[in-house]
Design brief:
The chain is an alpha+beta fold. The chain has 2 domains: 105 residues, Ubiquitin-like (UB roll) (Roll); 299 residues, 2-Layer Sandwich (Creatine Kinase, Chain A, domain 2), CATH 3.30.590.10. Helix content is 34%, strand content 18%. The chain contains 13 helices and 14 strands. Strands 7, 8, 9, 10, 11, 12, 13 and 14 form an 8-stranded mixed β-sheet that branches. Helix 4 runs parallel beside helix 9, helix 6 packs across helix 7 and helix 8 packs across helix 10. The longest helix is centred in the middle third of the chain and has 21 residues. The protein is globular, with a radius of gyration of 22 Å. Its cofactor is Mg(2+).
Amino acid sequence: MTEWLTTLPEAAQAYLEGRRLDEVECIISDLPGIARGKAVPASKFARQAYFHLPDSIFYQTITGDWGEAAGEDGFIERDMILKPDMSTATAAPWTGDWTLQVIHDAFDRDGEAIPFSPRNVLKRVVELYRARGWEPVVAPEMEFYLVARNVDPAKEIQPMMGRSGRPAAARQAYSMTAVDEFGPVIDDIYDFAEAQGFEIDGITQEGGAGQLEINLRHGDPVKLADEVFYFKRLIREAALRHDCFATFMAKPIADEPGSAMHVHHSIIDIETGKNLFSGPQGGETDAFYHFIGGLQTHLPSAIAVLAPYVNSYRRYVRDHAAPINLSWGRDNRTTGIRVPISGPEARRVENRLAGMDCNPYLGIAVSLACGYLGLIQELRPDKQQRGDAYSDEPDIPQVMGEALDLFEESKDLRAVLGEEFCRVYGIVKRAEYEEFLQVISPWEREHLLLNV
């Protein structure tokens, strides 16, 4: 037992120093990004090399129902073999005892990676880059709301009460006073992140009432997706300690900005260690333009992954800090694809279409997949947008059904992500969409009941 503990990452060892480990949470991300798994005594975890979960966890919709994703063999719930990735071992500092979390990878009985496990999908895309001699680097930004507790779905979501005793104010982007309103929650977020060994690059107030953004340092796509996966749980737990909810819905409050997971991308040439987007004299390379061209060409087919729920499409509203098209520009936040100001070494491309409600593994995977296709197909982008991209017409799907149609028709994207993953994902999301269409909204009752 003691020897096993000495192999843990440094932050996990520091968390347990002088303490007795009680429990290990063996977890894996399902399609929505919910942590599934088992909690086991530490002594048992030390003796086991793997554990089992049924593959049906990947067939479940967000409401807990199932589509017909099991395929021709029917719904027999085969056991998967889940093996721990000990590099992901980290504290669960909000628990009452001394607990670690460990992310696991899913395999079948023949030792093959389960193709519809989100972490495996991202690993597949990263390996395609590495096979070409490229190392993808990403930096995600996480936007979310702190809101008042909401236990009645029929009631609208309200901003949380701040430290002053007043509801969180909107239209206060980058205000330090607004950040101070949530001070106790933010303090716990920092404390939990430190205990888990995560480095926060910054926390800012965004434009919505109670909306915050956390930036993470750039790095390996799988590692950063793991961190976003962990952070969503961490932030929720910090909020609950202070009688509020943290929500990652794309559009939780009407007339307020939505929450995005902007993803910055760069690519390192493995042989030279140089940024593939910058040439010897510091100029922009063909690869830089091809990556943007890939995003412009293939992102419409990827929106069903970046915007995975009907609510997601409420975020794409003109003049509400979210893109409505695939224009690209330098230092232009009205575009869907932005090139931030940077030196040649840090030149990168930002995808601003992903919502914070997307699964971080899948959102990063599909964004990298579009850029990869642009690189190998040598695609060229449209002319740069130098003005207000909101003046251009929308050119991304506006509803879930349309997005799913494009996703299901995209042969190139499906080849990169894996056909079996795309089959399962499409069936699950189609089931969710059809279930939503059975719901009659308050708007319909108010305006149609007696007027049509």
